[in-house]
Amino acid sequence: MTGPAGGVDRPALGGQVLVAFAGLPGVGKSTLAVRVGAALRAPVLPVDPVERALGRYGLTGDVPGMAAYGAVAGLAEVQLGLGLSVVVDAVNPVASARGLWHDLAERAGVPLRVVEVHCGDEAEHRRRVEARPADEHVTWEQTLVRRAEYEPLIGPRLVVDTAVAVDPLPGILAYLG
């Protein structure tokens, strides 16, 4: 959907929406989340920088990970309260993390749309992980560990394979609308 000057039109949504991206590091979640946020004119709230900031203050392990999810959920709630749609960019590896978005959508009275992103080409996925900037670098070995711990997503969602040479944005926006 293109608008004037080649921009992307805001989809005709019936109102606000909470969009939660999920998937392993390096699959293309953040790239898609930013594109969806721009199309919706909605804030994009990534969990990774919050986790890194907590780490800089000496908070490491599982607790800061869930704390980062909780902090982003709190920020998302404020934005939803302002009448904005929100795009959450997070790995969302376990049901407890994903439950935050379900609970928030219910409290805010907005629909939740989950977009699960994966890269069906393992060599390409590895290349992407290893090419990430040093300040946000996750090793391929760490990604494999996260994949082994990743709980399958259950429930309504759109699954996007970024290894397919088709722009997923139109399909994502249709799903959101």
TrEMBL record:
Keywords: ATP-binding, Nucleotide-binding. The keyword Transmembrane does not apply. GO terms for molecular function: ATP binding. Gene3D superfamilies: P-loop containing nucleotide triphosphate hydrolases. Transmembrane segments: none annotated. This is ATP-binding protein. It comes from Micromonospora robiginosa. The lineage of its organism: Bacteria, Bacillati, Actinomycetota, Actinomycetes, Micromonosporales.
